[in-house]
Description:
alpha/beta; 12 helices; globular
Amino acid sequence: MKELRGAFTALITPMHDNGDVDYEGFRRLINFQMEEGIDGLVPLGTTGETPTLEEDEEERLIKIAVETVKGKIPLIIGTGSNDTKHMVIYTQRARDLGADAALVVTPYYNKPNDEGLIRHFEAAAAVGIPVIIYNIASRTGRNISASLIERLSRIPGIIGVKEASGDLNQMGDIIAGAAKKRKAEGRPFTVLSGDDGLTLPLISLGGDGIISVISNLVPGKVAALAKAALAGNFAAARQIHYDLLPLIKAAFIETNPVPIKAALNLAGLPAGPARLPLGKPDPANVAPLRAAMEGLGIKLK
């Protein structure tokens, strides 16, 4: 498939007040993202609250995303599980329903060793859809080292990594190792930041972009940041980075996606509440969120 570069939104799953999925709101959010110039979408990730979604809800969301996107931008579906068998089933479902790629997170809680991780991602790649590794030790309890990423990048069908280790040294090692080696072989390996605050540093090291949370609210600005940085216009990218920094900080003042859903609600976009066990945002944390949004000129309800 075409090399993935730019800004991709880790899309929320909007809910009604009673906790049911807001499917029409989901469609509306996808259209909003495309109108604002986002480079791709990533539904059914952590930001999409997949731990609390039912399988029939997930399938309907994938179908709506495929129908709405119509192939205009890449659609990457989260298919991770800490059970390899279930991960394969979810990855097959994404393939069969028309996704462009699958995002497969490190198995969480059971903390597999290197051999287990290799076999897990081999099983994902064997499904026959491009696979992006999602490395986020803060959620999974297991970091995938740069050397292991390089080994995994040799598996046919593994096309990149969403790197959310928060470690720029590790990100640089992945770019210098896995990405450069695969590129020399004529098989690009995409390195995307999993942290909004590290989009600019990652691209400056030679990375390819961001799978963003704040782009749920400001897709055009995040896309502009990535575009400027990828074009080597770091002065413009740096200005956008600092403009967005208050929102980045406020969006992670509590567990994601609680703050970003609160921000979307404030902006009048479909979001609703998060599902339990995620609770409502602390009222004290809404003030910096409002201030960051007002600083960006976003009209509040």
